[in-house]
Amino acid sequence: MATRDSMDELMQQVEDTVRFAQEQYKQSSLQEHYNDDDYTKALQQLEDTYQDIAKMAHSANSQQREQLHRMRLQLQQLQNTMVLEGENL
Questions:
Q1: Does residue 71 lie in a domain region?
Q2: C-beta separation of 89 from 30 below 8 A
Q3: Residue 47 lies in a domain
Q4: 26-61: buried (b, 16+ CB within 10 Å) or exposed (e) per residue?
Q5: pLDDT band at residue 15, thresholds of 50, 70 and 90?
Q6: What angle, rounded to 10 degrees, do the helices at 36-57 and 62-88 form?
Q7: pLDDT: which is higher, 5 or 30
């Protein structure tokens, strides 16, 4: 079973990653150009965090796995949105 501390740390990582990615997405939507480096960094952080969630799921109980699944879906949705936006810019 994943420890409460490790789950809390991962949840904080997810929140930070989502906040950064949403900010980059918002900036790219408002501007005719976007910062390639930060946008790419945000996408990489989403992927890295997604992988961290997958690793944590191996040692999680059923309740934790459900929580991790919801986090994964949130990251995937944002990742997909950003990739599609990046193709349109």
A1: yes
A2: no
A3: yes
A4: eebeeeeebeeeebeebbebbeebbebbeebbeebe
A5: very high
A6: 160
A7: 5
- Domain count for the chain: 1
With beta carbons less than 8 A apart as the criterion, state whether 25 and 85 touch: yes
Residue type, 60: A
Q: pLDDT tens across 24-50, in order?
A: 998 887 776 656 889 999 999 999 999
Q: Is 16 within a domain? A: no
For residue 31, give the DSSP letter.
Answer: S
Range(s) of the domain holding residue 48: 1-11+36-89
3-state secondary structure 36-84: HHHHHHHHHHHHHHHHHHHHHHCCCCHHHHHHHHHHHHHHHHHHHHHHH
79: how many CB neighbours lie within 10 A of its CB? 18
